[in-house]
Amino acid sequence: MTDQTISRANLQAIDSAHHLHPFTDHKELRGAGARMIVRSEGPYIYDSEGAEILDGMAGLWCINVGYGREELARVAYDQMKELPFYNSFFRCTTPTPVLLAGKLAELAPDNVNQVFYGSSGSEANDTALKLVRHYWALEGKPSKRIVISRKTGYHGSSIAGASLSGMDGMHSQLYGAVPGIVHVMPPYSFELALPGESEHDFGLRAARAVEDAILEAGAENVAAFIGEPVLGAGGVKIPPASYWPEIQRICDKYDVLLMIDEVITGYGRTGEWFACKTFNIKPDTITTAKALTSGYQPLSALLVGDRIASTLIEKGGEFYHGYTYSGHPVACAVALKNLEIIEKEGLIERVREDTGPYLARALAERIGTHPIVGETRAIGLMAAIEIVRDKGDRSRFKGKHAGDKVRDLSIDNGFMVRAVGDTIIMSPPLIWTRENIDVACERLLKALDAAEIELRRL
Ligand code: PMP
Question: pTM value?
Answer without folding.
Answer: 0.97
